[in-house]
């Protein structure tokens, strides 16, 4: 590898080209997400400005900024470090061009393999006063009317030092492909996917937040319930859930019907409650605990007479946040089906 200084811009020389344009591949419907681990082929894809095509032999990751020891890693050197695997839900926040009031279910549950970001940062030794890590992708282009020479996000240093945050090179045991952000991407379990920078090439320790469009113009929202107009970054995932079974329109043998699905949030789910036919009586479901950052399975036995019924489920996080009933991207999921 040619001699260069970390953060001097030459880390971008591994870029061959950017296939331009926004790309979104939706996930399957909730009733099709029946496996604990979501195959990569069933996981949503979101590409904001275009997919970065990269020469893996030239790729390097620079760790620099407000650190004592800036340095660079090749792909081979990164993979030689002790690997960490973590299973985590992976959720897309939704379009940054729309208010978060529409029902969104862009979710899956996967296992990532990579190196702890904290390991890389500790080697560089962040300086006193530094409080954010800016991550750069090799993609560039336009989203809506905004152009950017790179996709840049930031993480509070306190989050970046958490053990679950990875510089990842595998998903479900296989190398990351181009559309998944390969060869290397950031993974921030518990936070929305927008924070997990794809085609990663640079990690800069800084004082203060990034001023790029993906932290200023895009991916900020009004704080729910705050009438002052206060904004917050799209970071930690709020509680949400989906019903996998029964599927919409199903004909189910009664009277005992098994309702089950997945629930998730950044801090974990404490409880899931189910409501039948809008009666306002929310009764607890059996909830399986989480070990890492994976989604959690819930089950509920409902005794239903023949006819059409609607089941709704509502998750509550360990911090006590509840899914809203309506008007929010993570509003409760309802399924209508027939019992015979």
TrEMBL record:
<feature type="region of interest" description="Disordered">
    <location>
        <begin position="1"/>
        <end position="21"/>
    </location>
</feature>
<dbReference type="InterPro" id="IPR036374">
    <property type="entry name" value="OxRdtase_Mopterin-bd_sf"/>
</dbReference>
<dbReference type="InterPro" id="IPR000572">
    <property type="entry name" value="OxRdtase_Mopterin-bd_dom"/>
</dbReference>
<dbReference type="Pfam" id="PF00174">
    <property type="entry name" value="Oxidored_molyb"/>
</dbReference>
<dbReference type="InterPro" id="IPR014756">
    <property type="entry name" value="Ig_E-set"/>
</dbReference>
<protein>
    <recommendedName>
        <fullName>Oxidoreductase molybdopterin-binding domain-containing protein</fullName>
    </recommendedName>
</protein>
<feature type="domain" description="Oxidoreductase molybdopterin-binding">
    <location>
        <begin position="49"/>
        <end position="212"/>
    </location>
</feature>
<dbReference type="InterPro" id="IPR008335">
    <property type="entry name" value="Mopterin_OxRdtase_euk"/>
</dbReference>
